Amino acid sequence: MPYTDHDDDPAGFGSGDDQRQDKGKHLATDKTDTNEQQCDFDEPGIAPSLNESLSAPTATDTDNDSIEPDRWTDDEGYAESTSTRYLSSIASDIRRGVEENGRLYAAYGMHKQWLPIDDEELDRNDLQHYKFTLLLGNRLFICPVPSDPQKILDLGTGSGIWAIEVADMFPSAEVIGVDLAPTQPNLIPPNLSFEIDDIENDWLWGENKFDFIHARELIMAIRDWPRLFRQAKRALKPGAYLQLGASVPLFSSDDDTLPKDSAYLETAQIFFDMSAKVGVSGMEPLSWTKYLEEEGYEDIVQKMYKIPTNPWPKDERLKRIGALELTHYRDGIMNVFARGYKDILGGDETYFQVLMARARNEVVDRNMHSWVPYSYVVYAKKPGTSS
């Protein structure tokens, strides 16, 4: 599918970085024929960009089984309506973001944002996308989606990578990715557009519009999940699905090789302390099914997947996932804590740096068979029958 370059859009909401502008084009290479990519209710969400990995062992959806450890000897389209210089200035501020402590954060939204929006964070976002897609058995989603959806919404789209691949998968569908900041590439599929909005505000997309709504890793972003589910239900067509996914850092191990006094465990507690203090508890995914039931959703399904901390598993697919998680933790987790540890908890920066150094040393030890639950891949259907 030819990609559309939105760099000529007078709104100018592109990222401005050539490497990121080429991201969408790069991800679209080596796709199989479109007719082979379409999903039906039996094979949901096969990711076209990961066909080379299909020979790997398939994912275990329940993942309550223990993971066998390996043995080794070596250690653009943005809509901007600005008719005055004042509104243009506001739009410019949104594009630039807010710089703090050498990182860039979103300037737009109802609440202060704790995750950066710079290239370093977007690279982390892309790495996470590959990890989660591999974890789901090379699928972009696991809920039932018709083979010819007309409209798909990606909440908190981040770098836009999931929306780009779904737009490639369903060329007849209109795909919308929404986020607080214009960090997505300019070169995108023609059926994809990005919008700047705070999904905790009132939604303006109307009723019964979407065949599928997707959200993933909305870390420290949502303060009112029941309201989000209520708005999603209104926007979904009857019989359409909402799917959410989140990692909850309740680090564990099946063989008690994770020390109870580890710095790794302490960093997880810091995340829970920060998120609870600002009203975005990291434990909320544990309540998703309850909220969905209360909002009247049907066919609610929750699955839990284990993410190995490092490449300790014997299984090759899980080993690759563990390598991705190790890179994410060692090189990317500071993105989550950088703004919040001092501002939210008033913590001592020197102590935190020492703690993180200890944790990084721990997570490379493949004798520590720990894992993170990417739990709570949850999907549910709006009552009614799809047309």
Task: Outline the secondary-structure elements.
Layout: E1 4-5, H1 18-21, H2 23-27, H3 34-37, H4 85-96, E2 98-100, E3 103-105, H5 119-135, E4 151-155, H6 161-169, E5 174-179, E6 187-188, E7 192-196, E8 210-216, H7 225-235, E9 236-245, E10 252-253, H8 263-277, H9 288-294, E11 298-308, H10 316-332, H11 334-337, H12 340-345, H13 349-363, E12 370-381
Parallel strand pairs: 4-5, 4-8, 5-7, 8-9
Antiparallel strand pairs: 1-6, 2-3, 9-12, 10-12, 11-12
Protein name: Methyltransferase
Region (Disordered): 1-79
Biased composition (Basic and acidic residues): 17-34
What would you say this structure looks like, in words?
This protein has 387 residues and is α/β, with parallel strands linked by helices. The chain has one domain: Rossmann fold (3-Layer(aba) Sandwich), CATH 3.40.50.150. Helix content is 33%, strand content 18%. It is built from 13 helices and 12 strands. It has helices spanning 18-21, 23-27, 34-37, 85-96, 119-135, 161-169, 225-235, 263-277, 288-294, 316-332, 334-337, 340-345, 349-363, and strands at residues 4-5, 98-100, 103-105, 151-155, 174-179, 187-188, 192-196, 210-216, 236-245, 252-253, 298-308, 370-381. Strands 4, 5, 7, 8, 9, 10, 11 and 12 form an 8-stranded mixed beta sheet that branches. The relative contact order is 0.16. Belongs to the methyltransferase superfamily. LaeA methyltransferase family. It comes from Podospora pseudopauciseta. Residues 50-61 have a biased composition (Polar residues).
